[in-house]
């Protein structure tokens, strides 16, 4: 048999081991701020790789989950030069859910669907990447060094993981990011960029009945700024702004001495980022309630995923491989953000959402289509085999 036949045949036998690995992973706590839990998921990945004889490097992170880097080729390393040899499989281990969620809502199967925190976004994609590497370890055939990167803080903008991802992207010939496949089976070829920021407002406290005129309302200023920020939304250009969290005040009978708003900005074109951020800064710097002061702080950021000509060729290769694996994926644009934007911005042809199919991410109803586990793994494996020599 050919190497491709060996790999595809072996993957076709791995549905149950994949489900077992996924069950363990989903039933392990792993919120973005739970470093211990995210690292336990990383330990599961490392144990699997060790059992397959695949070298693993742990890149320690101070606040969030460590980055796990599995390498199939002994000579593969992050390159600071112009060489792009590595075939990169990528995914994040953290979820959006609070500590204890797996205990409250453990991994379950109903028919062909699996449920549980992070089952689709994106623990199934991690399991898929693990088994794809195992297949190439068993049978060979990869047309270049094969690297899998498992990061730990994507759901909060990869504040620590981003430098690791960008360094890896410099050496990447292509990138497959295993976010969940779309509910219709499609993958993502374009994404919006996003900036997540916080603005803090200082006012002056005063008794709202006996000394009202001495107060300076930070909440009054917050309301004016929210209205101005939301007015920057331009749906035709794909620009949206949402102040999704607000806090402030001291008591109902006190003029508010402080307030805070958190902003979600999404955009399509890279140039739009600077334009809109400048407008937001101007709003923050302008006092609608005299005497207030405000400060803007960027807390996290994603870059847009744009489809280069090389990425379009990679999609064509993947689509042909997927068709042979039993499905015909469309290439879709998503308003959501992901680490794939970082690799694309570094010049690495990137496909996103090549992981198993799921839906309703970030909710208690999140699900995974179990029947997609093997075909999606086979599609990635076939696409890798079809890349040819670097």
From TrEMBL:
Keywords: Hydrolase, Zinc. InterPro entries: ArgE/DapE_CS, Pept_M20_glutamate_carboxypep, Peptidase_M20, Peptidase_M20_dimer, Peptidase_M20A. The keyword Transit peptide does not apply. Residues 189-289 form the Peptidase M20 dimerisation domain. Pfam families: M20_dimer (PF07687), Peptidase_M20 (PF01546). PANTHER family: ACETYLORNITHINE DEACETYLASE, BLL0789 PROTEIN. This is M20 family metallopeptidase. It comes from Falsiroseomonas oleicola. The lineage of its organism: Bacteria, Pseudomonadati, Pseudomonadota, Alphaproteobacteria, Acetobacterales.
């Amino acid at each position: 048999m050919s190497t491709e036949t060996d790999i595809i045949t072996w993957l076709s036998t791995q549905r149950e081991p994949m489900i077992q690995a996924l069950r363990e992973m989903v039933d392990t706590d792993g919120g973005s701020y739970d470093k211990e839990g995210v690292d336990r998921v990383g330990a599961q990945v490392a144990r699997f790789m060790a059992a397959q004889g695949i070298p693993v490097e742990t890149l320690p992170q101070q606040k969030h989950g460590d980055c796990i880097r599995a390498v199939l080729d002994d000579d593969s390393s992050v390159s600071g030069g112009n060489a792009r040899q590595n075939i990169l499989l990528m995914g994040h281990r953290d979820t959006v859910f609070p500590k204890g969620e797996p205990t409250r809502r453990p991994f379950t199967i109903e028919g062909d669907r699996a449920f549980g925190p992070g089952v689709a976004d994106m623990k199934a994609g991690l399991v898929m990447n693990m088994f794809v590497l195992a297949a190439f370890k068993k049978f060979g055939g990869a047309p270049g060094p094969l690297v899998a990167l498992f990061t730990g803080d994507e759901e909060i903008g990869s504040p620590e993981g981003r430098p690791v991802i960008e360094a890896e992207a410099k050496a990447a010939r292509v990138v497959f990011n295993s976010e969940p496949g779309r509910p219709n089976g499609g993958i993502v070829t374009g994404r919006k960029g996003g900036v997540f920021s916080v603005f803090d407002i200082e006012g002056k406290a005063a008794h709202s009945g006996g000394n009202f005129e001495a107060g300076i309302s930070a909440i009054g200023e917050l309301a004016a700024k929210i209205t101005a920020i939301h007015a920057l939304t331009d749906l035709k250009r794909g620009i949206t702004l949402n102040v999704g969290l607000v806090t402030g005040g001291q008591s109902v009978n006190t003029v508010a001495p402080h307030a805070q708003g958190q902003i979600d900005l999404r955009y399509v074109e890279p140039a739009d980022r600077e334009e809109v951020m400048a407008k937001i800064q101007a709003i923050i710097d302008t006092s609608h309630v005299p005497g207030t002061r405000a400060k803007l702080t960027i807390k996290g950021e994603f870059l847009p995923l744009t489809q280069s000509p090389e990425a379009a060729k990679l999609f064509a290769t993947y689509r042909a491989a997927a068709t042979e694996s039993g499905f015909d994926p469309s290439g879709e644009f998503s308003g959501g953000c992901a680490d794939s934007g970082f690799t694309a911005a570094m010049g690495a042809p990137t496909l996103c959402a090549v992981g198993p199919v799921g839906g309703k991410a970030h909710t208690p109803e999140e699900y995974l289509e179990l029947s997609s586990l093997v075909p999606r793994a086979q599609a990635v494996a076939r696409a890798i085999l079809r890349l040819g020599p670097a």
